[in-house]
Design brief:
single chain, about 350 residues, mainly alpha, Tyrosyl-Transfer RNA Synthetase, three-stranded parallel beta sheet, 5 strands, about 55% helix, binds adenosine-5'-triphosphate, binds magnesium ion
Length: about 350
Amino acid sequence: QQRVFSGVQPTGNLHLGNYLGAIKRFAELQDSFDCLYCVVDMHAITPDMRVWGGPAELSRNIREVTAAYLAAGIDPQKNIIFNQSQVSGHAELAWVFNCVARLGWLNRMTQFKEKAGKDRENASVGLYAYPNLMAADILLYHATHVPVGEDQKQHIELTRDIAQKFNNDFAESIASNGFGESYFPLTEPLIGGPAARVMSLRDGSKKMSKSDPSDLSRINLTDDADAVASKIRKAKTDPEPLPTELDGLKGRPEAENLVGIYAALSGASKEEVLESYGGGQFSTFKGALVELAVERLGPIGNEMKRLVADPGHIDAVLRDGAARARAIAEVTMAQVKDIVGFVR
Ligand code: ATP
Ligand code: MG
């Protein structure tokens, strides 16, 4: 059975990178897989509260991510849309994985190093254990595929390591409980396309991020046409015209980023974008990109605003999704408890 699981954190400022790297692809996968799309609210509280903003903002952001899923065309009947905190199996399985994963594995995680910054002693234990919870999110549903942006590749590799170690450590018990040779699948990441890593509009060496203090660094899904236009016009570029071939983008991260965004929004390849705009001035290309971005993102932002104005509908979608997710999760947790030897 092929199953997709993925999630987005309700940490505010949903942006073009979240859309192109994740949410747009979630919608595309719904016809070929059995999909669960989660609002990972337990991950959202791992940074300092000054960063995630406190209870009222968290609730608002949970509804906003849900609205983005719906506005992007994810069907809540065909798929399961829910928030993580409402299915207790995530926390339960994460604890088992805390005892399977090794400190040395987590010490290699670059996201922790980036997010903890210099003041590592003051980072939360949750921020450190984040990848174990993410492995639990995925494996609770025996997901075989996880669509994510490039930045999450290392965490999916860790998920495979955890699945493998669990399968090895408990091999005898897995067999004697009737699950054969292995219990958890080795999940494949689905990373790709021209926008697997959308970069900041101000700095081509940093990924576009919700947590970047500069609003000019990202295009938010709820930005209006004027904001989108001014952010793209102000986006950092170099003085050279666009190259006509892909090779010419080497060493020009800002130019490559804008070409990648155009390609992903239009459904073309970067080569095709350069065939149309290569050799021309950046200002011409930026004008075309503004038009395309406003055309594609405008309806999504408007639909998100319409949906969050009616929290009753969003909350009902989440409640229904949680009940359906729970039905799957409870079976997994009963099996995991038998395998580990917890008496039920
Ligand atoms: P935060 O700064 O709070 O971590 P984020 O922008 O990284 O926010 P997440 O909620 O952590 O967003 O990630 C949700 C999904 O969006 C993940 O699949 C992630 O890989 C993807 N994603 C995030 N940023 C980008 C980006 N710049 N380009 C492509 N995909 C991205
Ligand atoms: Mg992130």
